[in-house]
Amino acid sequence: MAAKRVRYLKIGIIGLGPRSPAQIIGTKDVGNAVVTAICDCDESRIEPSLKLMRDNQMKRPRTYLDYRELLADPEVEAVMVPASWNPHIPIAIDAMRAGKYVACEVGGACSIQQLWDLVHASEETGIPCMMLENCCYGRDEMLALNLVRQGLFGEIIYCEGGYEHYLGGLARTIESGRERSFHNLRRNGDLYPTHALGPISKILNINRGNRFVSLTSTATKARGFAAAAEKNGGKGSGGHRDFNKGDVITTVIKCANGEVITLKHCVSLPRPYSRSCRVQGTRGIWLEDAKGIFIEGRSKVETHGPPGATWQVEKWDTVESYYEEHDHPLWKSFRDNITGGHGGMDTLVIQAFFDAVRHRAPTPIDVYDCAAWMSITCLSEDSIAMGSAPVPVPDFTNGKWIKREPERETPWMLSEIYKG
Ligand SMILES: NC(=O)c1ccc[n+]([C@@H]2O[C@H](COP(=O)([O-])OP(=O)(O)OC[C@H]3O[C@@H](n4cnc5c(N)ncnc54)[C@H](O)[C@@H]3O)[C@@H](O)[C@H]2O)c1
Questions:
Q1: DSSP character for 281?
Q2: In this model, does residue 414 exceed pLDDT 80?
Q3: What is the Å distance from ligand 1's center to 14 Cα?
Q4: 85 C-alpha vs ligand 1 centroid, how far in Å?
Q5: Which residues are CB-contacts of 193 (< 8 A; sequence separation ≥ 6)?
Q6: Topology of domain 136-328+367-402, CATH
């Protein structure tokens, strides 16, 4: 019998900064896809990517300095966009209008208008737009999702998370023009909400029977970046600048079904990395920073004190003790063969995008998710600018959220590749 011919997806990559190797090598790791074209408006970025591809025995792609030319290339059927934050949305809109599936790296929006433009481009063309929010595919985030879907936490009441990652070095890259540094210099809001908000939104069925309705956001004073720059060379290195972004931004989001989400953004004070997730229901809780899970009726409870005057002390189970039985089905089939960056979640998110492209199916993170999640950035800026005033979150689905079904339990992967 003749061997079944594999159809290789033809992928274009726009933006060749430090994040792009994850997509270039990720395409190879995932398999059944080739990078046919790469693009960066900065010419000096092209050769390092070509070298990376040569070193990894990947075929030489076509190269472009203007992303519109890449989008017009018939040898590109879908694009991944690890470009800087501001160009994500214009590139995604142009990609959809050129008929190409598009997946942007993570980031926030600068205005609500550009998010409506994004939604309208997808609705008018019928082409999906995905965010490559790899944290939606993290093992522990998916374990929590699975525990929630199995009802073990009861009804979910409260979620929390953040991006708490010391990036003091950004104060030094003002001089070299790195876009992200300028966002931190000039804006004051939660610039990077989606690493925690993505998984939490999936848990709370946002845009599928639930939605964000309003938020408030509060910023502390800003000292961290100036101190970091001072330590690393002082004058001329950013230390003399006044950074607008407060060191800790706290955003509180209310959901239509009564849940509350607290998000933290903290990148300018020294601390270990954490996404600080907490998912809490009427019967149980996952707390990332405690590396623990507690489920009523299952986890250990100790009794202390003298007879007649006792009290109970609830004890954490380790997260690891839940993997064997409760890993998300996707992780059950992936855990013995983990490949790719960030503990495998880079591979899973790219695989999910490729599956959707291959089947011409909706992407598991869709344009409404992108708009709702990215809106938190500019809305938190608005709230902070108005003294932490509440601001409404637009309904980018225009009412579709009311009747959209929650996702099925394991809908995120159409692929056969990681089947158990
Ligand atoms: N998911 C994750 O774990 C993760 C990790 C790191 C970075 N990221 C995200 O990846 C993205 C890229 O990060 P980075 O650190 O490489 O950013 P960067 O700003 O250092 O590099 C981005 C590259 O995009 C290019 N670019 C900008 N505008 C362009 C345009 N119009 N056309 C073509 N190229 C353009 C720039 O010249 C630059 O080479 C960001 O959204 C970042 O938040 C995600």
A1: E
A2: no
A3: 9
A4: 7
A5: 108, 163, 251, 263, 265, 373, 374, 376, 377, 380
A6: Dihydrodipicolinate Reductase; domain 2 (3.30.360)
Distance 205 CA to ligand 1 centre (A): 29
Whole-model pTM: value is 0.95
20 Cα nearest atom in ligand 1: 16
Q: Give the domain 9-133 fold.
A: Rossmann fold (3.40.50)
Q: Point out which residues pair with 260 in neighbouring strands.
A: 158, 254
Ligand 1 shell residues, CB under 6 Å = 14-19, 39-42, 45, 67, 82-85, 87, 105-107, 134, 178-180, 342
- Give pLDDT tens digits for 328-352: 988 998 888 888 888 899 999 999 9
Domain locations along the chain: 9-133, 136-328+367-402
For the segment 300-326, what is each residue's pLDDT rounded down to a tens digit? 999 999 999 999 999 999 999 999 999
Q: Do the two domains 9-133 and 136-328+367-402 of this chain adopt the same fold? A: no
C-alpha of residue 341 to centroid of ligand 1, in Å:
16
